[in-house]
């Protein structure tokens, strides 16, 4: 198993692991760092400052409650649908390609493409920005 540390286009650190199980079976995994405290704090502070400004203007305490609720719902949606912790690409030469995305909430999304359908594989920036060309089709 080989592991290397790289920088993403955004400047964040990512880890690339390469494993070779046999001559025709390889796995590539990209792991991103956990949620960055700086971005979480900035988003939370901006929502709460905007809510406090509206509270001062309207003198309605429901604005502050709504800001807390919106922040919590936004964080849950972000962790479940957006924040990807790890992506892996398993290439089995005679069988096909399996792509797996693991989200911060624990949710996993797996896609399998049969090798007979694969014409060429292009990895752009990271596995997340993938394009698979099959016979007559492009799979995002």
TrEMBL record:
Domain named Phosphatidylinositol N-acetylglucosaminyltransferase subunit H conserved: residues: 88-129
Pfam families: PIG-H
Membrane-spanning intervals of the chain: 39-57, 63-82
Organism: Gopherus agassizii
Alphabetical UniProt keywords: Membrane, Transmembrane, Transmembrane helix
Superkingdom classification of source: Eukaryota
PANTHER family noted in UniProt: PHOSPHATIDYLINOSITOL N-ACETYLGLUCOSAMINYLTRANSFERASE SUBUNIT H (PTHR15231)
UniProt pathway: Glycolipid biosynthesis; glycosylphosphatidylinositol-anchor biosynthesis
A Gene Ontology cellular-component term: glycosylphosphatidylinositol-N-acetylglucosaminyltransferase (GPI-GnT) complex
InterPro entries membership: PIG-H, PIGH-H_dom
Leader sequence residues: none
Biological process per Gene Ontology, one example term: GPI anchor biosynthetic process
Descriptive protein name: Phosphatidylinositol N-acetylglucosaminyltransferase subunit H conserved domain-containing protein
Family listed: Belongs to the PIGH family.
């Amino acid at each position: 198993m080989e592991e290397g540390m790289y920088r993403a286009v955004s400047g964040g650190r990512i880890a690339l692991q390469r494993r070779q199980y046999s001559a025709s079976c390889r796995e590539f995994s990209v792991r991103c760092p956990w949620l960055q405290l700086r971005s979480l704090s900035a988003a939370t502070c901006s929502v709460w400052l905007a809510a406090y400004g509206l509270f001062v203007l309207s003198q309605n305490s429901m604005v502050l409650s709504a800001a807390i609720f919106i922040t919590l719902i936004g964080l849950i949606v972000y962790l479940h649908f957006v924040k990807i912790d790890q992506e892996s690409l398993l290439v089995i030469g005679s069988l096909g390609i399996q792509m797996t995305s693991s989200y911060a909430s624990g949710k996993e999304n797996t896609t399998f493409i049969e090798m007979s359908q694969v014409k060429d594989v292009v990895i752009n920036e990271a596995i997340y920005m993938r394009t698979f060309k099959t016979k007559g089709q492009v799979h995002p």
